[in-house]
Predict the structure.
Amino acid sequence: MSGAREQAQAYAREAQRLRDAGEHYEALTRQRRAVALLRDTGDQLAIAHAVRHLADMLVEVGQPEEAGAPVTEMLALYRAAPDTPPLDLANALRSAAVQAEAIGDIDTAWIFWIQARARYAALDALFEELTGKPENPGVIEADARLARLRA
């Protein structure tokens, strides 16, 4: 593993710890550093994953407009990679839906939630393996969000 990749992973772990602690500015700073370092590695899936977390953080701190470019980038990266894990693509579509909702673009949010739901639904066995329960949290969340958008 390269030094840049190891440092990027360390920044991403620290960003998540800070995010969980509610220290959003510092979390964003660390996540941006992780993304910058990963860009030098050329690992498109790792970049997409880190950019997705950056977009999620921006939405969480009330900057959903700023998250638009990262959402577009991560979707393009995930869709272009032939070996994108299905759960990663489902999570990417979820992030896009959340960002679209946050900026009030309900039509786009609806489309992304439908796509995310379909991707999550195809992963029932994986979720049961991961959680030991038959419920699929991705489908449950998508259904709830879609119901709220319809209301």
